[in-house]
What does this fold into?
Amino acid sequence: MPKVFNWQLGREMDYPYEQALPEKQIGMVFDTNKCIACQTCSMACKMTWTSGRGQEYMFWNNVESKPYGTYPTAWDVAILEKLGPQTWEDGVYTGKTIFEAADGLKEKMLGILPDDADWAHPNIGEDQIAGGSVAQGEHLNEPIHKFWYFYLPRICNHCSYPACLAACPRKAIYKRQEDGIVLIDQSRCRGYRECVKGCPYGKSMFRPNHETSEKCVACYPKVEKGLQTQCVEQCIGKIRGQGWISLGDKVREDHPIDYLVRVRKMAFPLYPQLGLSPNVYYIPPIHVPADYLEQMFGPGVKEAQEAYKNAPNDETLRGLLVLFGSSPEIMERFEVKNGVARGYNRENKMVAEVPITEPLTLREAKDIRLDVYRMDVT
Amino acid sequence: MRAASLAVLFLFLFTACGGPATEDAGEQAAPEQPAAESAPGMSNQIRAAYRSEGIPYDPDDKAWKEIPAARIPLSPQGIIPPNGGGSVAELGVRAAHDGENLAILLEWKDKNADREVGVATFRDAAAVGFPAVETDMLPSPFMGDEGHPVNIWQWTADFDANARGMSGFDERYPHTEGVWIFPQDPGVTRQVRAWRGTEPVMEFSAKGFGTLQRHDSQSVYGLSQHGDGTWRVVLRRQLSTGIPEDTLFRPGSATHIVLAVWNGSMNEVNGKKSLTMNWLPFELEPTMVAAATVAP
Ligand code: SF4
Ligand code: SF4
It folds into this structure.
């Protein structure tokens, strides 16, 4: 198998195709601290792309509660179990990826084909707490919460080394040179479901009445126009930012995604140990035990949690986070100066200008003009 | 509000219709036993008998009994991942032509007729392949190679079911009819149906693994029967279609054939199949000789 460099693992790895990185790679950052699982993203995507016959069960975007939520059922625990315990040493992954652990002759990567019923419970495990059972009269009285859960919004990761693409015997899946978006050519797909089995994230889905597989298309018609995807734009919690991620050594400090992922190392890929180099990056939740999160996001989580907790004293970080969800356009550059964050589109035109702290105005309790008392005076 | 109520509706539907696909789980991986029951002149020679009075098309046609069956051993595909297959050990093949049309009857043991393509269920299928053009070298028996294309006819049990108006989809997902929102969706589905055609057989060209290309014009017809744990499938085509990608058959001469079978309940699809590992000679009886035999 050819060798490719996976920066998320800090080493070279086996992949069925030669390294061919795109000119630009779509990248997103999701701040899990702010997600409220309102599922607006799921519905935005569903109404846009998967409202058809045969797509009833599909959520290209789903939000699951961790640690117990999974869609399709058990997707992550099942592949982790198949892969077995693995190791990191000093930030370098010394374990095996799903490509390296496969026997190569029979299959190109470890994979699991979800059953019909596995797609039938998108909200399984919702809001279920981890950390033991709650005793009568127990309070949240510790510095670190004993009980925890968090929401994990998930879409296709438009991986740098997609397993779906590698699994397809017909080369029906391709990664676009111009933006790194991974698409399934519907006219070449013959419905073998190798990609459904191959994608460890459960993000390639089979449409039985068309006998083809479908997946998140990264809203490419919007991205081509410089607009954010549906699930990013519609996000109520403003947890999502979208742009480009630098995959090489050169990183851009003034680019929102590069800044959070590469410069500050505060946002992490989901299960990087699988070896796909996924390009949706998560700011880890600060209230969740770091050992659980390290399994999910790789090393460095603790430092990121500390940095996030320090956000009140960190103007650039705070500014960048308030830019999330502040414009329908993709912001390719940002700056934070004198308490104001500004975002610029691909033409370098300012598309968002947000004060980090909203100016506070106190109003009289009584509105004399309308002769009513105000419910809210700020 | 609309989004919220739809979400509730969807979730209800999902929980209501998510039955696991385990009916076939009991089937053993052990190869099925030979299918072609004893017939006169059993051999592994595939020869299309000449029938001046016309060829049988229905798999139940008694005329098939008079045509000798070749018994062809099949092996699992083990050359390129994903490997697999091997659940069907042998294929019975009979063939006939009348100077105009060619019919091939394939018979193999398979307990279950897997007619449905669900999210995680696979259909039964069978395919024959011929060198698409005559060259001095035979194509690779594994779907041909560059410069030596193969003409493939694939019969699938789900298309067969569709052609008979049986839709596994509606049975498995009974509450989903009509839940789509956008008017263009039925249009997209219609387009897919039109692309698929109404026949249970599709005709392709291939130049190696992963290169299967559907022909724009389709000229193979199929009929099938499943009973007594056996599939009997007839594929029929004109000897000559005038289309350059289609193999030309000439009475009195020989070409070659490869065969493959997929067993849906063993999750066989794509490279996971039971197949012949080499080209087998495929002869067509001359029109004249056979005519002489029939003449009083
Ligand atoms: S997340 Fe899955 S479907 Fe998306 S590119 Fe990666 S392997 Fe393919
Ligand atoms: S990027 Fe677009 S297609 Fe992909 S999950 Fe989000 S809304 Fe759906």
About this structure: DSSP finds five helices and 14 strands in chain B.
